[in-house]
Amino acid sequence: MSSDEKDSGDELWEKIQKVRNIHKAEVEQETNPSRKKLKSWLNNTFRIKMTDGRILIGMFVCTDADANVILGLTSEFTENGGEERVLGLVMIPGRYIVSIEIDEANLVNAN
Questions:
Q1: Claim: this prediction has a pTM higher than 0.90
Q2: pLDDT tens sequence across 83-109
Q3: pLDDT of residue 30
Q4: Average pLDDT rounded to a whole number, residues 44-48
């Protein structure tokens, strides 16, 4: 390895460490109550009713600015009581969500 390669590698490492430290500081200083509430819902059971009548029950993984929701270990049910259908990991577009319920009896991250 030449000294030029070593220097560029060291610079890259320093940049990575700087970004990591900035991110860590941002996480530690998180004071937004909405974000805290959202984080408290992670890994909890959600029950989502969709516009087509289906009901999805699964573990909340994440959401985004468009209100899309990702659930893991998800099962699908129909309103008329049809059989359970195991789906696994799903992304539900926000425009198709009618309602969301959280199983508060079993909150994982209760504060």
A1: no
A2: 899 999 999 999 999 999 998 776 665
A3: 65
A4: 96
Exposure of 13 by Cβ count < 10 A (0-12 exposed, 13-18 middle, 19+ buried)? exposed
Q: What's the distance, CA 13 to chain centroid?
A: 29
Q: Which tokens belong to 21?
A: 């430290």
Element (H, E) at 45: strand 45-50
- How many residues comprise the chain? 111
By DSSP bridging, strand 45-50 and strand 69-78 are unpaired
Question: CA-CA distance, 64 to 94, in Å (whole number)?
Answer: 9
Amino acid at 65: A
Do residues 96 and 56 make contact, with C-beta atoms less than 8 angstroms apart?
Answer: no
Residue type, 46: F
Q: Tokens 């969301």 map to which residue? A: 100
User: Residue 53: which H helix or E strand, with range?
Assistant: none
C-beta pairs of 1-10 under 8 Å, 24+ apart in sequence: none
